[in-house]
Amino acid sequence: MKRNKIVSMLALLWLPLAQAAPVSLADAWQQLLQVSDKLAADGQQVTAAEAQQQAAKDLYLPSLTLNGSYTRLEKPLELDLTKLNPLASMDLSSLPAQFAAIFAAIPHSMFVTPFTEQEVFNSSLQAMWPIYTGGQISAAQAIRKAQLQEKQEQQELTRRELFTTLVDRYYAVTVSQSLVVTQQQLVDSLTTHYQHALKMEQQGQIAKVERLNAEVALDDAKVTLGSAQRQCEMAEIALRRLLHAPEAETSTPMFVLRTPPSLPQVTELTLAQHPALKLLNAKEQQAKGLIDMEYGKYKPTVYLYGNYTLYEDDSLLSEMTPDWMVGVGVRVPLISRDGRSGKVLAAKSALLQARYTKAQTTQDLSLLVDQSYRQMQQAAEEIHSLDTSRQLAEENLRLRELAFNQGLATSVERVDAELKLSAVNTKQLAAKYRYLQSYAHLMAVSGQLDDFIGHSKQQEMMDAR
After folding, report:
1. Which InterPro entries does this entry report, sorted A to Z (predicted)?
2. Residues 6 or more apart from 136 whose CB is under 8 A from it?
3. pLDDT, tens digit, for every residue of 325-345?
4. Beta bridge partners of 227
């Protein structure tokens, strides 16, 4: 009784896995956006760039520093009046005797004034507020803003690459499963044909070589079926790993558009908003910011400063020092050893590099759009042409089957007709897969991912009717 109960519980746990619902392309895309580690890593780079940009906004704010110090002097600072004129140059022997006696009676310590102790303690608040930096602060903020845009565009590039990868792996599962079904149908058909040929050989209606031909064709089909099953397993594993899912059953069928997208429109969208071009624009803005920053180092820096004493020791010097002070400072660079001129040239070179790379990328994207569009057209033409070929292969197989059953055709002719039909079906599946790959690349490069998802949903709804 207890064993039956455990078996029932295990069956209930296994049931959701065994009956895992197929996932649509749209749902798989949303799941991939949530579980992709690469996209999450790019998202962290965007977060870090946002924090850097926020930090750059504080450059205009004043700085406030708490300073504290302890100093031990070799000896206290003192002022000896006997070393100052007129006492230092006074000759006591030239004075009247009564005055000389008076000065001689005064202790030397009476002429010494201590300014500090030997150990000096001090703490203060120091403030500094830059009011003009030659454009260096605004240039630094512009660089941070461009760096944020660069990371955002890199994240968008990753998102589009993930989409094409998903389409490739998703429909690879669909194609491989269809190939397994097609190959299984071929094996079943050849098995029936072999059994029929075996009976006809036993009845003396066909020669042994006809039966052997049917048997060899069946064995070859079984080997091909095993290979198709292994490929299907690998395609499912690849999709599961991509989606971080235990199962990879697809539900969105392959489709072909009735009306292809407009090539001029796709090209215009690509060249206007592709993230690679925007990323290079951000690189260009960073180079401009570096140029402005280096030029700003040639200009003076004006700042406000202040100091407020929080604690000081009890000494004459401390009493003489004011508790607070404020002022305006200016710093003018005359000769610098940081290689400002070389850095300006390097920044200008980076700017030109970004512009040249952008021009080359524009050409490459335009070529990519043209290639993807023509590959999609070629695949569509192949799909439509194979429709007629498939009808011919089906009719040829039907006639060869009838002829073989009546003894008017050989087993080779019957098997050849079966293989031709299987080859046509395989070619058409491959053409549909290439079509969807080209269409996905075209939509990804132009930023129209939602259009692809929308058409896949329409096809799914049409097949559900």
Report:
1. OMP_efflux, TolC-like
2. 292, 293, 296, 297
3. 889 999 988 887 777 788 889
4. none
State the Cα–Cα distance between residues 171 and 16, nearest whole angstrom: 24
At 255-309, the pLDDT tens digits run 999 899 999 999 999 999 999 999 999 999 999 999 998 888 888 999 998 988 8
To which CATH superfamily is domain 22-61+134-298+338-457 assigned? Outer membrane efflux proteins (OEP) (1.20.1600.10)
253: left (phi over 0), alpha (psi -120 to 50) or beta: beta
Structure tokens at 292: 């402005």
Residue 86 pLDDT more than 70? Answer: no
> Biggest alpha carbon distance in the chain?
165
Residues near 23 by beta carbon (within 8 Å), at least 6 away in sequence:
31, 243, 245, 248, 249, 250, 251
Helix pair 340-405, 263-273: axis angle to 10 deg: 150
Residue 87 has pLDDT above 70, yes or no: no
Domain boundaries, given as residue ranges, for the chain: 22-61+134-298+338-457, 64-87+121-132+300-332
Burial pattern 103-124, b for ≥16 Cβ within 10 A else e, equals: eeeeeeeeeeeeebbeebebeb
The residue with tokens 């760096």 is 147
Buried/exposed 218-252: b ≥16 CB within 10 Å, e otherwise = beebbebbeebbebbeebbebbbebbebebbebeb
Q: What is the mean pLDDT of residues 66-89?
A: 70
DSSP string, 186-211: HHHHHHHHHHHHHHHHHTTSS-HHHH
* Contact yes or no for 183/232 (Cβ under 8 A): no
Q: Can you tell me the distance from the alpha carbon of 44 to that of 70, in angstroms, rounded to the nearest whole number?
A: 44
Radius of gyration over alpha carbons of the chain, in Å? 44
Q: Please report, as a single letter, which amino acid is at residue 189.
A: S
Here the tokens at position 446 are 């132009």
Residue type, 48: A
Under the banding of pLDDT at 50, 70 and 90, the label for residue 173 is: very high
User: Phi and psi at residue 339, in whole multiples of 5°?
Assistant: 65, 50
What pLDDT score was predicted for residue 201? 84
* Nearest-angstrom CA–CA distance, 149 and 143: 10
The answer to whether 25 and 456 have CB atoms below 8 angstroms apart is yes
